[in-house]
Structure prediction request, 65 residues.
Amino acid sequence: MNILNLEESSAVLYRKIKEKGRLSIGRLSSAELLDAIKLNNEGYIKLDRTRKGNVSRFLVVKEEV
Prediction:
């Protein structure tokens, strides 16, 4: 994925998620949550479900095909 087309704040969040492997939605600020929504809509990240249920609580980088 080419992150050069992203705004700086979105690119920072994308790198943070990529470094950690996954990131809890509950730990995001309001601005980061908006960036996460943009990244999800553009296909850079996806919501990952928990092991215990069908609830999405984590952000992970989408794998390139």
